[in-house]
Amino acid sequence: MIQLLRAPDAKMMDRWLANGGTEFFEELGVDPRGRWEERVSELLGGDMIEWLHSLSLKVQIGKLLFVHAGIDAEVPINRQTAETLAWIREPWLSSKGPYEDGLAIIHGHTPIADVVLSNQHRINLDSGACETGVLSALLIHDGRMKLFQTG
Fold this sequence. Notes:
It is built from six helices and six strands. By secondary structure, it is of the alpha/beta class. A hairpin with a 2-residue loop joins strand 5 (136-141) and strand 6. The chain is globular, with a radius of gyration of 17 Å.
């Protein structure tokens, strides 16, 4: 949505509407087929939009790298594109690791039936909350992990 506010793009809009954007617009009571940018900006407010713009596409804490969708395992971490970090599926989902500098990648974007914590290189936390009602979160403390799920 932030990318669309910056530079409206029909293809990107279609993809976003198919992946949760429709519900976003419905909750705001805004028609995405019209001139939605000004109304959404007004409803969210400048502070919220500024904060969303400021967010990083990836966050590294020690040997953990948090991203939305995943990475291209063939590209150095510091050269990953916004498109990859936000939208990649294959070949990422088939990759087993290890990854650059021994990083473990924590991601979502592709719903799975069961969150698996046994892969030391990659954890997908997307339990498909919008369809299953199950939201997953991972507590990481003192080198240990605990999975929490609602629903």
